[in-house]
Design brief:
Blueprint: E1 3-7, E2 12-17, H1 22-32, E3 39-41, H2 48-59, E4 63-66, E5 71-74, H3 85-89, H4 98-105, E6 107-111, H5 124-132, E7 136-140, E8 143-147, E9 156-158, H6 164-176, E10 179-184, H7 190-201, E11 205-207, E12 213-218, E13 225-227, H8 233-246, E14 248-253, H9 261-269, E15 273-276, E16 280-284, E17 293-295, H10 307-314, E18 319-324, H11 334-340, E19 344-348, E20 351-356, E21 364-366, H12 370-382, E22 386-390, H13 393-396, H14 402-408, E23 412-416
Parallel strand pairs: 2-14, 3-13, 9-10, 17-18, 21-22
Antiparallel strand pairs: 1-22, 1-23, 3-5, 4-5, 6-8, 7-8, 10-12, 11-12, 14-16, 15-16, 18-20, 19-20
Helix pairs in contact: 1-2, 1-7, 4-6, 5-6, 6-7, 8-10, 8-12, 10-12
Bound molecules: uridine-diphosphate-N-acetylglucosamine.
């Protein structure tokens, strides 16, 4: 297993290119399975979650070809096969193939998902969405079994809360259903909007993506399509946090400020400056970081996927930062590891109290999930001496060349292959 070795204390400078959004790409790969016409995706990040999802599409019989510019998925000849638990275990997003398979075959059997160990992460809302369109859904022996032999019928899907994944399941199912579907309480994340744009390019009729109420008129007459996905706002926010901890100034090429409003507001409250440039966004650090109050919320609120990274900033701010995690119930696995670097953090239920200001000192730490791991890398950039981050494969799930991109900006970081 690879490790990252970081020597802290180097300010960052230069530019970093923000990749396409992983969480936009994954549902779009699933969406390719809806159509008998090919889909070309031109901004997929080179991360292992995407490779895994393409492998899943391949297991169903989709023909996947790729070059430096694009990935093409031709799902004209897919079959309702079974994906083994080992593949599904690694990634919750495999759930997203459920709706496309149901649309194509009138039945689907998909193993209950795995993914980051950040809480119970039930799938009830996905199943509710499919039932609302006439499918019979049950969970049997670790598998979700869905049946709609006569096809799905448009209807009203009222999601109990704005789940990103369940909204994506609802959207994809609705494009294949006969008649109009209304999705109420839809998630408003840019990745949901990007999926809608991809589906529209594929021929779907969708209105209201980005609001809490989405309308879909089906069934779709599918056509060949090409889609360029949005940049990864979480990757951009992570590099902004890197500047906040390490100091210096970098340009986040391709980043879109309008997708990062809540994170930018918090960064500014902590003393970091951001402004738009011709190519993206520029972030400039400070050595007088201020504490903040942070509560994770569905979009457009502060993203849970940046909570761990901002905790690393809080460790360096003079004063007490309160962080409330409201989306997932077990998303503080980075806390014991940050403490190993000398951070003063107290947990009380879903709240972390971070008393910042004392210098961090390098140590050996263990990555536990994707975003938790990157917060350890960030803390390592600021810590005195050497930090070794173990279990780097968690980072490779969602960050394209993290070590190379940081090194390019002047960080002292290297990957040690074992
Ligand atoms: C997606 C993102 C993930 C991000 C999360 C929240 C992808 C591949 N992953 O995950 O990085 O952290 O959004 O922004 O896009 N819930 C239920 N029942 C369900 C579904 C969800 O109770 O059927 C709950 C979850 O347990 C959680 C909340 O709803 O507490 C939000 O989860 P959701 O938005 O569905 O997250 P994901 O789509 O899994």
């Amino acid at each position: 297993m690879d490790q990252l070795r970081i020597i802290g204390g180097q300010p960052l400078s230069g530019a970093v290119s923000i990749a396409g959004a992983k969480n936009a790409g994954l549902p779009q790969i699933a969406a390719a399975l809806l159509s008998t016409a090919p889909l070309e995706l031109t901004n997929l990040p080179k991360v292992s979650d995407v490779a895994n999802m393409l492998r899943v599409a391949g297991i169903y019989g989709a023909e996947v070809t790729q070059d430096a510019r694009a990935v093409r998925i031709d799902a004209s000849a897919i079959e309702p096969r079974e994906v083994d638990y080992e593949t599904v275990r690694k990634m919750r997003a495999t759930m997203l193939v459920l709706a496309p398979l149901l649309v194509r075959f009138g039945k689907a059997r998909v193993s209950l998902p795995g993914g980051c160990a950040i809480g119970a992460r039930p799938v009830d809302m996905h199943l509710k969405a499919l039932s609302a369109l006439g499918a019979t859904v049950s969970v049997e022996g670790g598998y979700i079994v869905a049946d709609a032999a006569a096809g799905l019928t448009g209807g009203r899907i009222v999601l109990p809360g704005p789940s990103v994944g369940a909204t994506e399941t609802a959207l994809m199912a609705a494009t294949g259903a006969r008649g109009e579907t209304e999705i109420v309480n839809a998630a408003r994340e840019p990745e949901v909007v990007d999926l809608a744009h991809c589906l529209i390019a594929m021929g779907a009729e969708i209105e209201g993506a980005g609001t809490h109420r989405i309308l879909v008129r089906g069934p779709t007459q599918w056509r060949a399509a090409s889609h360029h996905g949005i940049p990864d706002r979480i990757e951009a926010g992570t590099y902004a946090a890197a500047v906040a901890v390490a100091g210096g100034q970098i340009e986040l090429v391709n980043a879109r400020l309008e997708h990062m409003a809540a994170a930018c507001q918090t960064l500014e409250a902590m003393g970091i400056t951001l402004w738009p440039s011709d190519r993206g966004v520029v972030v400039s650090g400070t050595d007088r970081r201020k504490p903040a109050e942070i509560a994770t919320e569905p979009y457009p609120g502060f993203p849970t996927d940046l909570q761990a990274q901002f905790m690393a900033i809080a460790c360096l701010a003079s004063g007490t930062t309160i962080i409330r995690e409201t989306i997932f119930e077990n998303r503080f696995m980075h806390v014991p590891e940050l403490r190993r670097l000398g951070a003063d953090i107290t947990l009380s239920g879903s709240t972390a109290i971070v008393r910042g200001g004392a210098p961090l000192k390098g140590a050996q730490v263990m990555a536990t999930d994707l975003r938790a791991s990157v917060s350890l890398v960030l803390a390592g950039l600021a810590a005195e001496g050497e930090t070794i981050v173990n279990r780097v494969y968690h980072l490779d799930r969602g960050y394209e060349h993290l070590d190379r991109k940081l090194a390019q900006c002047g960080a002292q970081i290297e990957r040690i292959s074992q």
